[in-house]
Amino acid sequence: MFRISEILSQHTSDVRGVACLDDNTFASVSRDKTSILWTREGSSFKSDKCLISHNGYVNSVTFIKHQGKDYLVTGGSDKLIYVWDISDLTSPRYTISKHKDNVCTLSRGTNGTFCSGSWDKTAVIWENFSVKYTLTGHQSAVWAVIELDDGSVLTGSADKSIVRWREGKKVQSYMGHEDCVRSLKALSRDSFVSAANDGSLMIWNLNGDCLAKLYGHESFVYSISLLSTGEIVSSAEDRTVRIWKDNDNVQTIILPATSLWCTDTMPNGDIICGTSDSKVYIFSKNENRLGDTSTIKHFNELNAAFTESKKTKSSLNTENLPGPERLLTPGLKDQQVLMIKEGSDVIAYQWDLVGNEWIKVGTVTDAVGQERKQLFEGKEYDYVFSVDLEDGKPVKKLPYNVSENPYTAAQRFIEKSDISPTYLDEIANFIIKNSEGVSLGSNNENVDPFTGKNRYIPSEVYPKEDPVATKVKFSGIKGYVLMNTGNPSAIFSKILELNSKLKDESPSLALSDSEIKSVEKISSILSNPSVNFGKMSFSLKEIIKGASTWPLDYRFPFLDLLRLITSKDIGSHIFENEILNGGSLNSFIESTSQLGSISNETSAMTPMYQVRATMVMRMLTNLLTHSYGQIELVASSERIFEQCNQIQSKSPNKNLSLAISSFYINFSAFIYSYKSSPKALHSSLSAERIDSISLLLFESVSGWIGSIFSSKMKTSSASYDQTEIEILNRLVTVIGQFVLIDKRRYTEFLNSNNVISLIKGFSQNTDLNELSSVLALLD
Q1: Does some domain include residue 332?
Q2: Residue limits of the PFU domain (predicted)?
């Protein structure tokens, strides 16, 4: 049986391809933009060379022999193929630019040839590093291509078909898979095996007959390879590598990663596997090459930790799961996950310590389903929406990756669907609204203390797999971010709970029954999206009372109601007289949330301080969508930016960081609109005042970028976690907005503060469309 031999951890993102040269040498390529050549030293492999040339994810790799010399070939999302001379890896020997999209597969051919497949729906056969044949005819991406011993070529595509080609012409089709074909491997001169997203492996003869269909995997099968003894090795999205002998699954190896992207085998019979946890795993049957005690222990611990945090439905004994009555018992720790059986479903709840309640985070299916991408025309997307444009007409598919600007995806959809560009804002807002959600088992700080829902705004990034390469010119922030997602009834329930406590703790502060009814009325109005809030009769007196007189740690539900209220157009009269009570915005912020309590350098932010600050920043973000809010924020901006700077210096959590960056995005969008048409927007605001505020905002944003990079340099870390990438991407977007306003002024400031070089350094560690378009402005 195969057991763990080694775990190699030099990559910093998904390992998308592995290829073996011999028993002592193999290569791995990754989404971290690097290719690593590994060589055996003694009993273990060491990183011999780390190759950096691709300007994007490196997704495919193979070795070839040409004129007696060994070459390493790599392909990436930058559409390029690099060929490296193994004897001299200082720079690529050849750079090949032929494909028009991501080069997703490479394979060794015969007599020095090699094959490439791409998202551009073509495969290319290369001889002497020049095009021999270009194979066109597939309707979607070509995920697999191999050359057979007789010189014919097989291609597998996202259009679910396999095609055999001879001398560049199509000679045979093989239909049988029900989803994208991901991998092909020759078994003999007249048979081959294929793997697909339908979870199956199929064995074929060249005449087109399916000889066997192998089932066992529970999700997409990404890669297949062959052992010298004839067994088939497959890896999939179900955490497993499976070994098949005589059409039977004779061994299943479970790994501590969801996506097992690639496999290859060595002549000595060892198996190499690259995974989504950025590691390369090597498995062996040979006793002399098995991992030592510490390696085996580490592998088992990784697996145990993964199983603990990402349960699958099949692993749960649903008969013994508690029912809904268990939700009456408080959780033991923040973000504790609890599985509840409700009828025939298993529902996941997460304990929210701040809200003191269980929040439903989804129906449990399996860990794979929480992270699986959807495929559309052979490419992988986070979302593929069905859009019904007209009664009686077929629905249109709208693909979207969270790593791209919603407006870019909307524009692409408009152009492809041939519909009016006037729908741009409506489609983009649809994407923003419907791309919200949480992932079960993730460390998700971006959660409301009431609803458990994520907020997404343009440029929020969750980098998981290859985004669709769409490089566009940065054209400014389109519209405003509106933070209006929430559950008013849950907020009201929290107010009732806290009010009950106050009746015992401080009766004079508790709301009376009539006051509670007034708050309930507001909650009911907010719960009905069809109600015109501005035309309703209501009073905010009780909400302001709770937000300003209750104990500080009890005020957050009132602040969250105010956040929802300010997402509506309530009019300047209500805002100025009921919310501000005739005072200033700064006075309101201090009386309700006391954000100034961390003004001294030694004071730290408590969890409840960060909750209050988050609610306030979300409210300010919404206020910037209204003219009366814009005027008040212009008047109060110095103090607000000062408090934001103080918070930024104390490592705010993700919720608070996202709220502040959303506020910055809306403020920069307002300034851009004012600069474009000052008289139409606010004739009462002076250009000098706007210029002064612009510089304050710009300094806050650029300073925050610098502080994040400084902290990285202090820890000698070159990698960025998801939260840092999300925040930096938003901040860079704001930088781009200011450069559009006055390129000379703000570029000079950026250069004098070394921010441009920092941003360019950041680009070496990420692959974000918005970032590249902003960098183009700065050049």
Answers
A1: no
A2: 350-445
- The answer to whether the CB of 36 falls within 8 A of the CB of 52 is no
Residue 382: both structure tokens together:
């986070």
Q: How do the residues of the chain divide into helix, strand and coil, expressed in percent and rounded to 5?
A: 35, 25, 35
- Cβ pair 396, 413 in contact under 8 A: yes
Say how many domains are in the chain. Answer: 2
Give me 209's structure tokens.
Answer: 């007959």
Q: Which residue has the higher pLDDT, 261 or 575?
A: 261
Q: What SS3 class is residue 481?
A: coil
**Domain ends where: 309, 331, 363?**
309
* Report for 17-26, 365-374, 535-544, 588-597: range of highest mean pLDDT: 17-26
Residues in Cβ contact with 145 at an 8 Å cutoff, skipping those fewer than 6 apart = 105, 107, 115, 116, 117, 123, 135, 153, 154, 155, 156, 184
Residue 422 pLDDT: 54
Q: How many CB atoms are closer than 10 A to CB 353?
A: 14
Q: Tell me the pLDDT tens digit for each residue of 283-340.
A: 999 999 999 999 988 988 887 666 433 334 344 556 667 877 777 777 765 446 677 8
Report the alpha-carbon distance of residue 487 to residue 721 in Å, rounded. 30
> Residue 717's pLDDT is what?
45
Question: pTM for the whole thing?
Answer: 0.47
Would residue 300 count as lying in a domain?
yes
Pair of tokens at residue 630: 């814009």
Helix (H) or strand (E) holding 201: strand 201-205
Whole-angstrom CA distances from 209 to 175, 363, 378 are 10, 41, 25
For the chain, how many residues are written?
Answer: 779
Distance CA 611, CA 563 (A): 13
Q: Is 374 exposed, middle or buried (0-12, 13-18, 19+ CB in 10 A)?
A: middle
Kindly state whether residue 512 falls inside one of the protein's structural domains. no
Beta strands in 98-168 (DSSP E): 103-108, 114-118, 122-127, 130-136, 142-147, 153-157, 161-166
Residue 595 maps to a domain: no
Query: Do residues 186 and 277 share a domain?
Result: yes
